[in-house]
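Page 42, continued from yesterday. The earlier attempt failed because a stray header line got pasted into the input along with the sequence. Redoing it now with the clean sequence only.
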Amino acid sequence: MHPQPHDELRTASFRDLDTTTLYAILRLRGEVFVVEQECAYADIDGRDTEPGTRHVWFERDGDVRAYLRILREDGHERVGRVVTAKTARGAGLAGRLLAEALEVIGNRPSVLDAQAHLTAFYARYGYEPSGPEFLEDGILHVPMIRSNDQLREVRRPAH
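This time it went through. Structure tokens are written below.
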């Protein structure tokens, strides 16, 4: 009997990403956000390379199956680019990634902009809506925050 392949959790700063992994991450983000969700936007926004950014992903046999990034912003962390490959959905990878992100973030407050249909998912991890819904790239989003002291609305950075 052969052992079953399993998903390996990885965390790295930009400088610790090898080019093959970086390519796989960018490819996954492009396949889902740009192609599947039909959003033409600048995914490579310059934030991946910032010294405080952490990349968290699951891979299996070199294939990136789920990913998110954590950005350091003024007084809080921002979780973003949460994505799961179409072939890996339903396996709980996004939840496991988010749990790992919260370990990395620790007790610092964190924010994210959830696609509106995913607010209940993020609420399971302690995130609460922190402002009005807004349209971004044709998709309805809700700003959310997770904080020990439940900070008031955190402003989104301008695009």
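Notes: Residues 8-85+92-146 form a domain with the Aminopeptidase fold (CATH 3.40.630.30).
Reminder to self: strip header lines before submitting.
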